[in-house]
Design a protein that fits this description.
The protein is α+β, with helices and mostly antiparallel strands. Helices cover 46% and strands 14% of the residues.
């Protein structure tokens, strides 16, 4: 082990041995068009800090995170795990500096939570495996467990190619929902840029909430759904706090101000 991190590594190991089981205290439930719902949960920054910071201090450690300029000249969150010996672990978490102070402040809080959890080794968010399983879609483990397709010997493959029928022409477009267009994609990206959301996961989460179903990629959007998201982004851009407005529009009923806990 590198002597320059021996003390901080030892202290962090003691912290991890004493980590409490954290209850995810914030849950978001999204209603789907089909009538079903999906939800995900996470530990808020306040509860994460209450549980972890005293434990760090007990073993001579401290966590700090300050906004600043990264090595690439763009805005970032500079985070540090400091040890009383003088050793430290540092890093940069890029964030967007666009938008008003409330929007930037929200990104800083978001980044602080992720950096603290990552440094200490806490699972502060519900992982995607459980969400996929809840939706009935195959998880990574299930996909890995699928039997591999049998591979024919080289001679057999050549024979198959020689006797193979010409590929059927692609089916004509159906009357069902059509995928969103390149022009809509450009408008989506421009809209997210206007409201200051540049993280891919955050963009996908906003789209999923607005259309009422979980999306694995923006390419899953239909033309009608893309229009709905674009309209919402254009409306959000006119608000004093676009990100807060979007959060209010996509929050579950239990999270709305004045709603029941």
């Amino acid at each position: 082990m590198n002597d320059s991190t021996a003390a901080i590594a030892s202290a962090l190991g003691k912290v991890q041995a004493e980590l409490p089981k954290l209850e995810r205290d914030r849950t978001v439930t999204v209603q789907q068009k089909s009538g079903g719902t999906y939800s995900y949960s996470y530990v808020t920054l306040a509860n994460l800090s209450d549980a972890i910071l005293p434990l760090l201090a007990k073993h001579g450690l401290a966590f700090t995170a300050l906004p600043g300029t990264g090595a690439d000249g763009k805005m970032c969150l500079r985070y540090h795990l400091l040890h009383e010996s003088g050793e430290k672990l540092t890093g940069e978490f890029p964030i967007s500096g666009e938008g008003g102070i409330q929007m930037i402040g929200g990104r800083i809080s978001y980044s602080r939570r992720y950096c603290l959890a990552a440094l200490v080794g806490v699972a502060a968010d519900e992982d995607d495996e459980s969400r996929l399983a809840d939706e009935g879609r195959p998880t990574t483990a299930q996909r890995a467990a699928r039997p591999a397709k049998a591979t024919a010997p080289a001679a057999g493959r050549q024979a198959q190619r020689a006797t193979a029928k010409p590929a059927a022409p692609p089916p004509l477009p159906s009357d069902g929902p059509q995928p969103y267009t390149p022009a809509q994609r450009a408008k989506l990206m421009a809209g997210f840029g206007q409201v200051g959301i540049d993280d891919r996961g955050e963009r996908l989460d906003v789209c999923s909430r607005l259309v009422g179903r979980q999306l694995s990629s923006a390419n899953d959007l239909t033309m009608d759904e893309a229009k709905r998201v674009i309209d919402a982004l254009e409306t959000a851009a006119k608000q004093d706090s676009p990100v807060l407005w979007l959060a209010e529009q996509t929050a579950a009923p239990s999270e709305e101000p004045g709603g029941e806990a």
